[in-house]
Amino acid sequence: MTIANRLKLGLVLHGVGRGWQSWRHPEAIIDGSTNIDLYVEQAQLAEKGLFDFVFVADSLQSPIRKLLSNTSIL
């Protein structure tokens, strides 16, 4: 099998979980979304499992008023 035909495996890292209510689980890591050590640990596990990549979705965390005051609306 050539490299071009090989299946690629990826892991999406979600911090506290994959759902909106995951943070409420009794075993949830509450600071998971901002805990760099957790992301490193999960990335290392993915590497050990021979995953090809990990993905961390970022998001804008700014109050809407501040965002609107810093942009021009055409």
From TrEMBL:
Q: What is this protein called?
A: Coenzyme F420-dependent N5,N10-methylene tetrahydromethanopterin reductase
Gene3D superfamilies xrefs: Luciferase-like domain
Q: Which SUPFAM superfamilies match?
A: Bacterial luciferase-like (SSF51679)
Q: Which InterPro entries match?
A: Luciferase-like_sf (IPR036661)
Upper taxonomic lineage:
Bacteria, Pseudomonadati, Pseudomonadota, Alphaproteobacteria, Sphingomonadales
To which species is this protein native? Answer: Sphingobium fuliginis (strain ATCC 27551)
Q: Name one GO molecular function term.
A: oxidoreductase activity, acting on paired donors, with incorporation or reduction of molecular oxygen
